[in-house]
Amino acid sequence: MPGALQADPLPFRNTPALPALRLLTCGSVDDGKSTLIGRLLYEQSLILDDQLAALERDSRRHGTDGDNIDFSLLVDGLEAEREQGITIDVAYRYVSTPRRSFIIADTPGHEQYTRNMATGASGADLAILLVDARKGLLTQTCRHAAIVSLTGIKHVVLAVNKIDLTSFGRAGFEKITADFKSFAAALDFKTVTAIPVSARHGDNISKKSANTLWYDGPSLIDYLETIDVAEDGGGRPFRFAVQWVNRPHLDFRGFSGTVASGTIRPGDEIVVAGSGRLTKVARIVTADGDLASAAAGDAVTLTLTDELDIARGDILCDPKNRPEVSGQFAAHLIWMSEDRLLPGRSYLMKADTRTIPATVTELKHRLDVNTLGELPAKTLSLNEVGVCNLATTAPLAFDPYKANHTTGAFILIDRATNATAAAGLIAHGLRRAANIHLQGLSVDKQDRSRIKHHKPAVLWFTGLSGSGKSTIANLVETRLYAHGVHTILLDGDNVRHGLNKDLGFTEADRVENIRRIGEVAKLMTEAGLITLCSFISPFRPERIMVRELLGENEFIEIFVDTPLEECIARDPKGLYRRAIAGEIKNFTGIDQSYEPPEAPELIVARDKQTAEQAAARIVALLTARGLIDHIDDLGDDWSI
Q: How far is 109 from 117, CA to CA, in rounded Å?
């Protein structure tokens, strides 16, 4: 095949084969990533005759190189990609040469698909960062370089592509190389190798090009075949995240998962990171029989010499070299959601095999991808990178990402949409609360509720402004108080005069408003009270967060479902009129969304029943749930 690698494989027969190299191509849009991979496949004779014929037909239909073959079409598999001439998804291709095999991830260049690029980078050992020789470094080039560094890739090939379009000029190549090395000085790369290439015509791809006699480095394939990127995963401390408890019958109990790092043998002592309980490995079980040892990457089932309480998500580790265990840590976040990061909002954190609620407690700064400087920020938008502090609802066992990519990485999941919101890389644990411990109390919640003769609960009234939440809540409290029930009413307007007077009505401030109220409501239930909370609380994740702070049957969500038109018609405070006129910003129902509850304990429709009838239904619900004794003298106005 024309342009195929001509090197005789015989000289390498006695050379030990290097392990397969996992690499990705990245860089700004239209810098030639897909073309480069297509050219590699072509020159290694990895395109079948029927594929080549189809490629020639597709090149005539979608190609961008006249009558020549457009190699990018080999990788751009989606119809939308071919029509637009861009890469959208991450495409994986396998390439093999006489000396090495490669697994290549072709990642998108467009800014809106940066999250796809980060996904491809997470499993790579080396990055080929393409730069258009005519354009030099662009913002997306710098962004990709920063993400490559954050995801732990230590080796970068700077492929200065389309060198043919600059008449194979040396000066432009050297300037781009110098600019990039100056930019990358602050990044944690071990090697940066610059190669002038023309992916379209094959210059310096499989062999040295006669068009760049001034270049004395290797061709791209020569470099990739010889670079050693292996790290001694087996020499790291033992880490094993339990994926599931394997209990096929009463006589067998094992813990299945994949060894993240280190090695393990029967008889070795291990510890459960979270509980600190010590034990020994009895057997290493696989479908093909027991093993004498297991190393990083091996999927096995471990049986132990002791019966310990171990569940999915627990990490088994070397007792002499344990991971950190903390509920607070600092991390880099690569934001992947169209919805902005809201500090204080509860997200789901998936760290290896464990999923727990987590909150960004503080956004320290945002990364300027052009200068790698630190910019002040209150939120992160799509594709932005920042450093933040996080807190989880339970202690988490982890290592810094630089020490262990498996136990140091996580994703954040939006609780409302179940979509991935961010990729996270743990930097270190926080010691802020290391000297603070829960104080044991002689009188607990049950004791306090016993003398009150009713059980504690939170009645959470949610709905639009003017829906009647406060009116109904006030009626319910009045009736409960008249019958000796111990209550407290937290109203949105009243709380903003004191506890939350420093907060506005932006999304971030509304999130923090409900976070604080949730913590106060939890304290009120500890006091044995029935706490009535009347707040618009427009976002589902915050209402879910408050629910999870409380015990079973302690959170009752009451949706006061009054249509927006009815609320506007009432407009008791004149707020809708001002919001519609643009005088009030971030007003729920006008220029800020309201997310109705999906499964509230009770829905009261204020356009179909009186406030008294709605209150009566709520009191009846409390009775039915056994929270209070039956109230018989509700009167005519309280009939359901």
A: 8
